[in-house]
Amino acid sequence: MSVLQAFTETMAAPAAGAGAGAVVAAAPTAPGSAPSFFDGYEFVKAADGRSFKCCGSGGFGAVFQCIEKATGQLWAVKVIYTSDANAIKMYEREYQRMLALREHILADPDAYSTIVVPKDGFLEHLPTGGLVIRLVMECSPVSVPFAFPARSGEIEPNSATLRSMRSEGSGCDMTGNPIAQPPLTLGQAKFVMRQLLMAIKFFHSQGLIHRDIKPDNMLCWGSADIETSPGVTERVPQVKLSDFGLARTVDEMAELYTRNVGTKSYRAPELLHGKYNNSVDLFAAGCTFFALVLAEQPSDKLDDGFPNRFQHIPASSLLAKFPFESPQLNFLAMLTQKDPALRLTAEQALAHPFLAS
Q: Last residue of some domain: 108, 139, 170?
């Protein structure tokens, strides 16, 4: 049974006769008990009338749509289930971190505009020894704005929706309908990267390493017409960084040097050696920039940095977007240096001539 199926079967039973788009409630918490997710929220039903409307899933969890009972507002809820003792500790840590981070995000306008804000959280230890966490957060109009064909072995094994979506090189909206995503222009990519780097700068200022920067974790919150260069106006998406499941504090990294983290094509070379710092987020940001502009995954040759990481692309295609001695080529190169000591920090990247122009 897939993780997603397990979630669907362990959630509140569907209401009899409820159709797609209906909300499904469970019995409220008994008096004197800790608050429950179901006291304040209801799941939104999917089109099949049996399961819940899912925005995406991964190894341990899935994200669903839910409705806040008091306001009728649509939210997303990340539901995590595990019975593994080590994973329970990890997700309890994520739960506490997400809620603690909320106040810092709300107090920082740059962070609020570039990071998905957690709203509420519910942690439930099951009698069987498992753990269920439900994290309520902002609901993006588009769940995966930039998705590209995945390389072998990189597709979540239990997610047919994401598998079909990625094989078509498209994203999907919150109803599951595919959205075609052509490459971004350099002007559009410049503004998207500025938003991403502002989010990374905030994370690093809080002593956190995200460890899973990639296009799929950048959710779209709408768009605006912006003059991206003199005389050129383009529609630019507003994006927010999401998914803090792999994030760690710098203090934790002193003992938690996990190698197999992040998505393969976005991993920095030093992850192979198990000794790294927050510069892995900048390497992944550089790979993200490459992916947005070319709509191609970076190479998964993990021991390589610039330029070998990108030599699987035909030279004509690469040079068309990254000409020799261009600011954008230097920007890409400085973010994806094999030696982390030579990489730009988030603050330095934001001041790079490519973004500053």
A: 139
Q: What is the sign of the dihedral through the CA atoms of 162, 168, 171 and 176?
A: negative
In a domain, 216, yes or no: yes
Query: Is there a single domain that holds both residue 102 and residue 215?
Result: no
pTM of the model: 0.77
pLDDT digits (tens, 9 = 90+) for 47-80: 887 788 887 776 667 888 999 999 999 999 988 8
Residue 207 CB neighbour total at 10 angstroms: 13
CATH number, domain containing residue 270:
1.10.510.10
341: Cα separation from own chain's centroid:
26
Alpha carbon distance 5, 26 (integer Å): 18
User: Tell me: the pLDDT tens digits for 195-252?
Assistant: 999 999 999 998 888 888 988 888 887 788 889 888 999 988 888 998 776 767 766 5
Burial class of residue 115 in the structure, from the number of CB atoms within 10 Å of its CB (0-12 exposed, 13-18 middle, 19+ buried): buried
- Are 70 and 208 within one domain? no
Work out the angle at residue 214's Cα, subtended by the Cα atoms of residues 239 and 205, and round it to the nearest 5 degrees: 70
Note down the domain range covering 91. Answer: 3-139
127 located within any domain = yes
Confidence label for 37 from pLDDT (cuts 50, 70 and 90): very high
